[in-house]
Amino acid sequence: MTVAIVPPQEDAASQETASPEGTSHEGTPPGTAAAPTADAAALVAEDARDFGAYARTGGWAFGLKVARSVRPGGQSAGETPKISAKEFAELAGCSADRVMRYYKAWDKAADDGMVPHFEALSPGMDVELPDADIWLSYYSARSSALSQRGEAISEAAEAEGIRPTKALEVAENPTALRAAILADPGTAEAARKALMDRLDEDPALRTELVRDIVRTDDLKKAVAAEAKAGDRVEYVRQIVEKGQVKTPAGQMIDASAELREEAERHLSLIDELDDGEESGEWAREAYDTVRDLVAQTVQSDPELRVQERRAKFYSSLQKATKVFEELTFDDVDTAEDIRDIYEDDMLKRLEDLQQAIGACITALQSATVRPEADHDPRS
User: Fold this and answer.
1) Based on the number of CB atoms within 10 Å of its own CB, is 66 exposed (0-12), middle (13-18) or buried (19 or more)?
2) What is the DSSP letter of 142?
3) CA gap 233, 268 in Å, rounded
4) pLDDT tens digits, residue range 51-60?
């Protein structure tokens, strides 16, 4: 579509002197519409044409004016009748930044083959212009969009299906964004989701967020509670998905049909919770239920019960061994140094531990001796 927009001339009527009170121009009585003159009709028709051209092409019409009148970078004034963006802005009565936004939008469109390049245009030339809706994908009304940061924000806005100018306006007003987050739960939720999406690609933000949580007692407690609830849900989920369950002593055993059915029932209730609902109580109930069933399973099977006790003892033995290995005086040079750190209860506790260990050793040793009834004198 070839469009040429000429700025409307001043309304001739505005230049006329005011008529005496009680009469209209040329003696027309009040309340009576004056017959349109030929000049007025021409002005109206020109306004209508300009309006229609802009409705069809939008910013392209003004982009064309810049593209055919402002000389490209690298060209001197002697090579082209075009003028600089600064001179054009002075004639237009606006800022050079505004002119350059139209200039850059046209340049991007030209690179995409939507419009001719600057070199192919001369002052007054008309060309076929794209539809108005396409203009917004090239033009930004904010100068911040021209920076690398602005381009990133614009690309993200387009990916979300919104106008870049909206996102840029928010980015330029962090105080307004803060106010909206503080006042509106919906805005706060959108901000939370956006932050979570950004954490993977922004290690610095992730580190700062973790530090904020650690420094805030209420948040630390909330994180710990959520982590505990998550572990419990995962425990139940493993029963459903893998058909196995870990006993209190750490053994992995096959889950019975009753246990799997109960775990699946609780898990389905948890999965059906809305995003805003607390899952802590549901997770605790599910965990306690399946743990009780696991304990019943262990107690009802004599062989499994023995294995469980053995596994529990080994677990305690490993923990005790690790602790006892640290009970040394390797870092103490002399007996005098030992006396400096000596406390009465230290010796008492070690003696109690020694007795407990001695009792365990005696019990295990007795288990290795076969009863006399089992001995055959002829053997």
Assistant:
1) buried
2) S
3) 11
4) 777 777 778 9
If you count DSSP H runs as helices and E runs as strands, how many of each does the chain have, helices first? Answer: 17, 2
State pTM to two decimals. Answer: 0.41
Rounded CA gap, 179 and 174, in Å? 9
Neighbouring C-alpha atoms within 13 Å toward the C-beta of 280 = 9
For 236, the 3-state DSSP assignment is helix
For residue 245, which phi and psi values (nearest 5 degrees)? -145, 150
What string of DSSP letters covers 121-186?
--TT---B---HHHHTTT--SSGGGGSHHHHHHHHHHHHHTS-HHHHHHHHT-HHHHHHHHHH-HH
Picking from 223, 219, 257, 215, the residue whose alpha carbon sits closest to that of residue 239 is 257
Which two structure tokens, joined as six digits, stand for 324? 């006892």
Q: For the chain, where are the E strands, in sequence order? A: 244-246, 252-254
Nearest one of 18, 104, 11 to 66, comparing CA atoms? 104
Please say whether the beta carbons of 286 and 270 come within 8 A: yes
CA distance 181 to 168: 17
Q: Residue 375: in which H helix or E strand, if any?
A: none
Cα dihedral angle (262, 266, 272, 277), rounded to 10 degrees? 170
Which residue's structure tokens are 């979300």? Answer: 160
- Nearest-angstrom CA–CA distance, 378 and 137: 102
Asked if residue 154 lies in contact with residue 144, where contact means CB atoms within 8 angstroms, the answer is no
For the record, the structure tokens of 68 come out as 């055919």
pLDDT digits (tens, 9 = 90+) for 265-311: 888 888 887 766 777 888 888 889 888 888 888 888 888 888 888 88
Tokens 């802009």 identify what position?
Answer: 54
Angle in degrees, CA 5, 10, 15, rounded to 5: 170
Instruction: Provide φ and ψ at 128, rounded to 5°.
Output: -70, 130
Dihedral, CA atoms, 265, 271, 277, 283, nearest 10 degrees? 50
